[in-house]
């Protein structure tokens, strides 16, 4: 899509109202490497009287980009407004820095002033447009819809930021970055941001275990005690196998998911952590019980079997061969977005004692390459087709809350049968301040990856998965059912408000029997008390699926409770 001439807008206009603009997460100002004073890294840009942000690329022959957020244009000085697709989204203005900096370090920006510069600008835009159009051609209606959904949900649910990758025919065809990597510092999200992917680590770890099995270094059917050297299983657990650990059918409890430690500080070793965390809740092989402890034990088994560090082995055997160049099971101290908890508060960096259960750091592109390797006919894979199929074949039926979103669990993958009969595999991840999800249909090569630096992102994920499901011609996948909770919550809010209003009216008009007033008092205490109890909790499942609605739900409940309390406390009156 080439640049186009547009009439110059008059007056003060938000950037989103400029002709031809399509802004999903701010905008960028583009400058040709000409002009009286080059822009350097760290300079600040001004458009009118609005700060635009720091220069984010080196100067020289490469373009210098300035991210613009929430700015309005005062007397705009350029008529070339370009939209080069949602792959490189925003308004591009050719500018250079002129004049001296004031005490804030902010310089003034002025548009190009010569036909030569304008010609160079247009040629550069056309060159940049080539890759954008290639990525957009294959999925433009869907990517537009995904962009709109992401933008709306990030705003309504208070999500910090997210990166989405869409896969078609086993290849990534579009990537979108939305929101902020660090809202407090006004740092926008970028496509190559590095995330904690939390329990999305499990399918990657499962690939490592299968790689060792196919190369004869790990027996998935042998008791894990055969390998263990640094810790011994307690009595009665000697029938646990690596395959049972991979499928969450070893009978182990969830484990302490809150065991977080500063990356540079002391933390227990893996054997010590497992010894404290290990607990059997069922006999091995008797059913599904999701377990972080199980995958931490699998990590210990792999290390003891190979006499090699888990992160180093995974990097060599899986991550590097699959092209996951930004991924690592080790903390690297790399610059990452800031995670945000369910209340929207920033979360400090942390690590777990175990890495196989939730210690992977990766970009969205890394996870997309991993998903692509699991598609049928994938060109790049470290496993045989039979090995991949074994990882994706259901091993055990899931129950509890998991049954609302999945049919079964394979080796490191949830499974479900789509409405048209196709087989889908997926996995999500939720940790303190971070969420992740990958959904894929190996038969057709369709897939979607979503990573977020916010724990409030489940409704966002569900809405995106609903859009993606529609695009591949099936009913919404199981994870999209999170949106049903929103409908139920809105209904409950309306019902609670109605109850409160009716109760207040009734308390003022009618005389109620003593027994009814006692019952109303008990109900009032519950309806008023539970929101305060919930607000004091560190984590509730309700917070995750209703991040924007649960305060309204709690308020409506309290209002209904107040109405019932009026009935309970109103003194008896004569007719």
Notable characteristics:
575 residues, 14 helices, alpha+beta, Beta-lactamase
Poorly predicted regions are 1-138
Mean pLDDT equals 80
Q: How far apart are the termini?
A: 78 Å
Which structural class best describes the helix and strand composition?
A: alpha+beta
Q: Kindly state the percentage of residues in helix.
A: 25-40%
The radius of gyration over CA amounts to 28 Å
Task: Order the strands across the largest sheet as they lie in space.
Answer: 13-12-11-23-22-21-20-19-18
**How is the biggest beta sheet arranged?**
9 strands, antiparallel
- Beta-strand content bin: 15-25%
How many beta-strand segments? 23
Task: Identify the CATH homologous superfamily of the largest domain.
Answer: DD-peptidase/beta-lactamase superfamily
Instruction: Provide the CATH topology of the largest domain.
Output: Beta-lactamase
Number of helical segments with 4 or more residues: 14
How many structural units, i.e. domains? 3
CATH class of the largest domain: Alpha Beta
Shape: globular
CATH architectural label of the largest domain: 3-Layer(aba) Sandwich
Multimerization status: single chain
């Amino acid at each position: 899509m080439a640049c186009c001439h547009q009439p110059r807008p008059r007056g003060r206009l938000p950037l989103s109202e400029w002709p031809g603009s399509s802004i999903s997460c701010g905008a960028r100002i583009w400058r040709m490497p000409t002009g009286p004073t080059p822009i350097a890294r760290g300079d600040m840009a001004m458009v009118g009287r609005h700060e635009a942000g720091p220069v984010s690329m080196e100067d020289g022959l490469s373009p210098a980009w300035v991210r613009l957020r929430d700015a309005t244009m005062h007397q705009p000085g350029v008529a070339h407004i370009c939209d080069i697709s949602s792959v490189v989204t925003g308004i591009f203005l050719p500018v250079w820095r002129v004049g001296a900096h004031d005490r804030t370090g902010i310089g003034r920006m002025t548009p190009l002033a010569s036909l030569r510069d304008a010609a160079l600008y247009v040629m550069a835009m056309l060159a940049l447009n080539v890759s954008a159009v290639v990525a957009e051609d294959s999925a433009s209606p869907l990517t537009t819809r995904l962009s709109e959904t992401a933008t709306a949900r990030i705003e309504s649910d208070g999500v910090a930021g997210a990166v989405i990758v869409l896969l078609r025919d086993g290849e990534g065809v579009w990537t979108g970055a939305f929101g902020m990597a660090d809202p407090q510092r006004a740092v926008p999200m970028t496509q190559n941001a590095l995330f904690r992917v939390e329990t999305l680590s499990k399918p990657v770890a499962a690939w490592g275990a299968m790689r060792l099995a196919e190369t004869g270094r790990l027996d998935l059917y042998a008791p894990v005690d055969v390998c263990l050297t640094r810790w011994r299983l307690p009595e009665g657990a000697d029938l646990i196998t690596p395959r049972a650990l991979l499928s969450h059918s070893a009978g182990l409890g969830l484990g302490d998911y809150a065991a977080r430690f500063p990356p540079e500080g002391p933390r227990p070793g893996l054997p010590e952590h497992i010894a404290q965390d290990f607990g059997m809740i069922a006999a091995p092989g008797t059913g599904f019980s999701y377990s972080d402890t199980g995958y931490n034990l699998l990590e210990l088994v792999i290390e003891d079997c190979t006499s090699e560090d888990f992160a180093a082995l995974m990097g060599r055997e899986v991550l590097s061969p699959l092209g996951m160049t930004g991924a690592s099971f080790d903390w690297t101290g790399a610059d990452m977005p800031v995670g945000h908890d369910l209340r929207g508060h920033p979360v400090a960096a942390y690590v777990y004692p175990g890495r196989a259960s939730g210690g992977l750091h990766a970009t969205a592109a890394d996870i997309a390459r991993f998903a692509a390797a699991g598609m049928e006919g994938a060109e790049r894979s470290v496993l045989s087709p039979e090995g991949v199929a074994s990882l994706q074949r259901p091993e055990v039926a899931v129950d509890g809350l998991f049954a609302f979103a999945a049919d079964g669990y394979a080796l490191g993958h949830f499974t479900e049968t789509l409405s048209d009969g196709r087989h889908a595999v997926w996995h999500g991840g939720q940790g303190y301040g971070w969420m992740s999800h990958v959904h894929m249909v190996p038969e057709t090569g369709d897939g979607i990856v979503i990573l977020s630096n916010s724990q409030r992102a489940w409704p966002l994920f569900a809405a995106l998965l609903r859009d993606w499901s529609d695009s591949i011609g099936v009913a919404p996948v199981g994870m999209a059912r999170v949106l049903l909770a929103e409908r139920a919550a809105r209904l409950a809010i309306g019902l609670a408000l109605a109850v409160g209003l009716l109760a207040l009216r009734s308390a003022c008009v009618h005389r109620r029997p003593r027994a009814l007033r006692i019952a109303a008092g008990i109900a009032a205490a519950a309806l008023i008390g539970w929101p305060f109890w919930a607000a004091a909790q560190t984590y509730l499942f309700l917070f995750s699926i209703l991040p924007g609605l649960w305060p309204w739900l709690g308020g409506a409940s309290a209002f209904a409770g107040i109405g019932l309390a009026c009935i309970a406390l109103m003194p008896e009156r004569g007719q």
